[in-house]
């Protein structure tokens, strides 16, 4: 049988002479209209954007048998390709020519009726058996192609699918028993595991490397596991020893650019093969072959259980794009964001993880990026991220711990919370506003100081400087901080400074609650005085927003002084309740487990026993001043703020 190569299209399948079978343990074809339409729309978008670029449909996990290639995972996608072949009448794709006869390229184990149905559809004859899912799939294909092609013949698009619809084959070891294959299939589908586009990218990058492909493959595998540190603490190893290994690895890459020597000096091969560490039971060892995409066959329940309690802030695809952004020496200025591109590629395309492979292909082919350069940077910035950037640990009392950063003082806690604030206020499309500059700053520090002992106050100042470049003080005045237009970032910023200056803003009995505050990605805006007042506690009298004789009242409803940001669940609980009811709920949260979702909200309900239009005005001034003073420098600035606040309250 022809050797399995890395990537296939319908054209390459025809040329290769491969044919496939669906084993008995596989479920029947289940794709519905949504999946068919999504596939065709994605194909057509790719075709319209660049007819020469491949469209990747993913990975098919297979096992070679004596008579065929058995589809262990991926039969839904392959069957969809067969249905496209039937629609387009690709007989060469649908049949494999042998010395004696033409046989169907897709065979079914112990499912003779499905085989007869497919043959009848290919030949245009009647069949006594109807595979309803496949029949519907063919109808969806025909109907949607007419819609997107309209009056065009579609021949060019058909050729694009035949030549560019690309998938990868990952071959399982030949010694898997039928029971093991069935177990593997169940695990894959129970866990919802599907091909990650970074696995496809891995194949392309390894192919582009000129040397040391096996070692760079190990590096990639280690970096891709964002749930774990790239260098692990060995059993009985002191933390200082682990820190020293991180330092040696970073400085070796920075000074000599040698990723291999960096990790050899640490006496570890990315800790993948360390037998004395209990963290590494699931990690793959040396790849079976360079360029193959490895599939982890470990029980997915074990993976999920272990990996949900700790992870890096960014996913691996998100991290890859941040490193690529650094490699291209990109620097998007704020005033350029509207129509700006990243080195010739739209921001929305560049940071779209779904377009990861296209973005890297463009960077390599159009921007001249070298695979070795990228891989060295990947290793370096992953080390820096592990050491200097907080990790999330959802089960700990402190959900944003530092694993290695050595300083233990109040300034370190501020660094932790500020990074958490930036993370909560960001998205995959906006990480570039702070992550790349932070990583390059930390690289520069390690390089010039030959040390990892960065002063926490200096670290915090740099974080604020980076953040303030994107959210300058003038935005507090210039931007419309009202309900419809407000950037939710400002809520997180207020909460950070209320936490940082908590001893000034909160009474002693609440400090314990404030100190436990955790930044979360809550995005639901709650009006303190309800948008639709009820007849309780005189709400309709206090807040009659539609009073035409006082149009300024409606402005108060949607101003920053009358808004907080909480979770959608808590918002649903509080919606349209009067201030007194909301305050009681807030007090219950604060006095219970100490978990509050907004320090701004805690401040309001701890300071005010009732809510009025005058209170809204007062809290509006307070909120705006918190933002204003957050840009001030000097140790006495917040005391000045409190003095000013006291004078205002006295008036």
* Broad shape: globular
Strand order of the largest sheet: 1-8-3-4-2-7
Strand composition percent: 5-15%
The rounded distance between the terminal residues' Cα atoms is: 89 Å
Q: What can be said about the biggest beta sheet? A: 6 strands, mixed
Q: What's the tally of helices?
A: 31
Structural class: alpha/beta
Kindly provide the radius of gyration, computed on alpha-carbon positions and rounded to a whole number of angstroms.
30 Å
Q: Please give the share of residues in helix.
A: 40-55%
Mean pLDDT: 81
Number of strand elements: 12
Give keywords.
single chain; 651 residues; alpha/beta; six-stranded mixed β-sheet; two-stranded antiparallel ribbon; 7% strand; disordered N terminus
Please tell me about this protein's structure.
The protein is α/β, with parallel strands linked by helices and 651 residues long. 52% of the residues lie in helices and 7% in strands. The chain has 31 helices and 12 strands. The strands form 4 sheets. Strands 1-8-3-4-2-7 form a 6-stranded mixed β-sheet. A hairpin with a 4-residue loop joins β5 and β6. α3 packs across α6. It is globular, with a radius of gyration of 30 Å. The termini are far apart. The model is unreliable at 1-5, 184-195 and 271-308 (pLDDT under 50).
